[in-house]
Each structure stands twice: as structure tokens, then as C-alpha cells.
Amino acid sequence: MQRIVVLTGAGVSAESGLSTFRGGGGLWDDHRVEDVATPEAFARDPALVHRFYNERRRKAGAARPNAAHHALAELAARDDIHLTLVTQNVDGLHEAAGARDVIHMHGALADALCAACGHRWPAPKVMAAEDPCPDCAMRATRPDIVWFGEIPYHMERIAEALERADIFASIGTSGRVYPAAGFVDHAAARGVTCHGFNLDADEIGPVFDHHHVGPATQTVPAWVA
Ligand code: BJW
């Protein structure tokens, strides 16, 4: 049984019509990251942050998984492979393609989180800070998203999977945001074979053993086949 850890980023959903974060047309072109993706920004202007995420939730809800999401779901279903699928994406497209047990290290647009008591519940289409928490009734509703300065989710589980991996693959991520950006170094230091997938050859660092350059909808199905 081969143990594979796959890390995905915004590039895997780009061909489903969802914007990436950096580069031309990236999400932050319209919104400075400090204005929307930090706890401080939320404390300063919760309405702006909710508007940003309500719009992201609307777009993600209308998007459909692409061939890369489907190929990864097929890989997960194979009997001879144990796949740990870790995503930085909050869009839910891996699940829409049929993948189960996806590790959402940066949270999910589909969930709401009470900043007062930590309770989680399915996000309404349009969320506002004034929405009462169904558990404690406080009005401190926020998206269940990991912002800069917050600790990503499931780090222990991810570290365990990386410790046991035979293969590591990083797909459609710029590798600029930590701790996810450090997974490849951790894997490479253990002698794990590392595959990098990106549209842009320059975004795949020399630490990767195999460079798969091109759109994820082509390179990922070709790798999985
Ligand atoms: C294609 C393609 C196609 C396009 N096919 N490819 C200084 C040094 C080191 C670290 C820090 C530092 N100062 C601060 C930090 C920490 C900070 C950080 O990393 N900052 C950096 C910016 C420097 N990190 C944090 O604060 C994290 N927390 C933390 O570190 O806690 C401490 C701790 C950790 C662990 C244990 C104990 C303590 C939290 C990070 C939270 C990130 N949140 C965001 C926004 C919220 C989610 C949301 O709104 O959606 O998450 S930021 C944003 O970037 C989002 C993404 O998940 C994340 C990564 O972006 P991604 O996915 O890589 O997208 P892009 O756009 O950057 O790249 C897309 C790529 O796809 C490109 O390369 C394209 O070429 C490619 N592509 N189309 C294939 N068709």
C-alpha cells in the first residue's frame, strides 16, 4: 500500500472559475489581504469581511469540480493507495467531486463559527456578525476560515500523514503561505518523493523531484492514470 499526501491550493480550482489569491486577477487585487483575512480586520470592519466571504461563498456554490478534482477523488478510491488529501482551499470542490475525509487546513466557506464560544454550524448563504450563535446566542458570527495569525486546523493529523508518506504532491499552490509551504521541505528531508504541479514552471521549486508543468486539469489526471 503506497501512502500519498496531496496538498492542494487555489490553482486546482482556477479552471472551475474561482480566482486564485496571487498573480494577475487574483482575489486580493480588489481587496487587500489585511483588510479581509485577519482577525484584526474582522474586529475593525466585520461587515466588509462578511461581504467578501458572502461573495466567495456565492461563487464557490455556483462552481463545479473539474478534471483535477475528479482525478484526485478517483485516486482516493483506489484500494492499493492510502491518500491523505489536504487542501488550503475553502471551496468544497474536492467533496463535490466525491472525495471524502478531506482535510481543510484553512477552514471552509460552508461553515459558520461563533467567535465567542467556538460552536460551528452550516453557514447561511448570507452571513452577518449580528447573526446569533445557535448554541450560546452571542452575536459574534464569523466565517470558519483560518486567517493570518491563526493556527491552521488539523496540524497534528497532517504531520502524522507526512511522517508516514511515501509520496508527497503539491498541486496549484504558490507555496508562499506557511505552514503549508513548509510541507515539501519536511517531506523531502525524509527522502519522500515530491511532485510539484503548477501552471507556471517558476512556481515549482528545486526541492521537488518531479515537475508537472501545465493546467491541473491535464497534469493531475495524467499523473493519476
Ligand atoms: C495553477 C493553475 C492551474 C493557477 N493549474 N496551477 C514570515 C515568514 C514565514 C511565515 C510567516 C511570516 N509572517 C507571517 C507568517 C505566517 C503566515 C504566513 O505564511 N505569511 C506569509 C504570507 C509570509 N501564516 C499564517 O499566519 C498561518 N498561521 C500560522 O502560521 O500560525 C502559526 C502556527 C502554524 C502551525 C502550527 C503552530 C503555529 C495562517 C495562514 C492562513 C492563510 N489564510 C488564507 C486566507 C484565508 C482563506 C480564504 O479566504 O480563502 O488562505 S491566505 C490565502 O493563501 C488562502 C490560501 O489558502 C493561501 C495559499 O494560497 P494558494 O492556494 O497557494 O494560492 P495562490 O494564489 O498563492 O497560488 C495559486 C497557484 O496556482 C499559483 O502558483 C499559480 O501559478 C497556480 N495555478 N492556475 C495549476 N490551472
From TrEMBL:
<feature type="binding site">
    <location>
        <position position="216"/>
    </location>
    <ligand>
        <name>NAD(+)</name>
    </ligand>
</feature>
<dbReference type="InterPro" id="IPR050134">
    <property type="entry name" value="NAD-dep_sirtuin_deacylases"/>
</dbReference>
<feature type="binding site">
    <location>
        <position position="114"/>
    </location>
    <ligand>
        <name>Zn(2+)</name>
    </ligand>
</feature>
<dbReference type="InterPro" id="IPR026591">
    <property type="entry name" value="Sirtuin_cat_small_dom_sf"/>
</dbReference>
<comment type="similarity">
    <text>Belongs to the sirtuin family. Class III subfamily.</text>
</comment>
<dbReference type="InterPro" id="IPR026590">
    <property type="entry name" value="Ssirtuin_cat_dom"/>
</dbReference>
<feature type="binding site">
    <location>
        <begin position="9"/>
        <end position="28"/>
    </location>
    <ligand>
        <name>NAD(+)</name>
    </ligand>
</feature>
<dbReference type="GO" id="GO:0005737">
    <property type="term" value="C:cytoplasm"/>
</dbReference>
<dbReference type="InterPro" id="IPR027546">
    <property type="entry name" value="Sirtuin_class_III"/>
</dbReference>
<comment type="function">
    <text>NAD-dependent lysine deacetylase and desuccinylase that specifically removes acetyl and succinyl groups on target proteins. Modulates the activities of several proteins which are inactive in their acylated form.</text>
</comment>
<keyword id="KW-0808">Transferase</keyword>
<feature type="binding site">
    <location>
        <position position="133"/>
    </location>
    <ligand>
        <name>Zn(2+)</name>
    </ligand>
</feature>
<feature type="binding site">
    <location>
        <position position="53"/>
    </location>
    <ligand>
        <name>substrate</name>
    </ligand>
</feature>
<dbReference type="GO" id="GO:0008270">
    <property type="term" value="F:zinc ion binding"/>
</dbReference>
<dbReference type="GO" id="GO:0036055">
    <property type="term" value="F:protein-succinyllysine desuccinylase activity"/>
</dbReference>
<keyword id="KW-0862">Zinc</keyword>
<feature type="binding site">
    <location>
        <begin position="172"/>
        <end position="174"/>
    </location>
    <ligand>
        <name>NAD(+)</name>
    </ligand>
</feature>
<dbReference type="InterPro" id="IPR029035">
    <property type="entry name" value="DHS-like_NAD/FAD-binding_dom"/>
</dbReference>
<feature type="binding site">
    <location>
        <position position="136"/>
    </location>
    <ligand>
        <name>Zn(2+)</name>
    </ligand>
</feature>
<keyword id="KW-0479">Metal-binding</keyword>
<feature type="binding site">
    <location>
        <position position="56"/>
    </location>
    <ligand>
        <name>substrate</name>
    </ligand>
</feature>
<protein>
    <recommendedName>
        <fullName>NAD-dependent protein deacylase</fullName>
        <ecNumber>2.3.1.286</ecNumber>
    </recommendedName>
</protein>
<feature type="binding site">
    <location>
        <begin position="198"/>
        <end position="200"/>
    </location>
    <ligand>
        <name>NAD(+)</name>
    </ligand>
</feature>
<dbReference type="InterPro" id="IPR003000">
    <property type="entry name" value="Sirtuin"/>
</dbReference>
<feature type="binding site">
    <location>
        <position position="117"/>
    </location>
    <ligand>
        <name>Zn(2+)</name>
    </ligand>
</feature>
<keyword id="KW-0520">NAD</keyword>
<dbReference type="GO" id="GO:0017136">
    <property type="term" value="F:histone deacetylase activity, NAD-dependent"/>
</dbReference>
<dbReference type="Pfam" id="PF02146">
    <property type="entry name" value="SIR2"/>
</dbReference>
<dbReference type="GO" id="GO:0070403">
    <property type="term" value="F:NAD+ binding"/>
</dbReference>
<feature type="active site" description="Proton acceptor">
    <location>
        <position position="106"/>
    </location>
</feature>
<feature type="binding site">
    <location>
        <begin position="88"/>
        <end position="91"/>
    </location>
    <ligand>
        <name>NAD(+)</name>
    </ligand>
</feature>
<dbReference type="GO" id="GO:0036054">
    <property type="term" value="F:protein-malonyllysine demalonylase activity"/>
</dbReference>
<keyword id="KW-0963">Cytoplasm</keyword>
<feature type="domain" description="Deacetylase sirtuin-type">
    <location>
        <begin position="1"/>
        <end position="225"/>
    </location>
</feature>
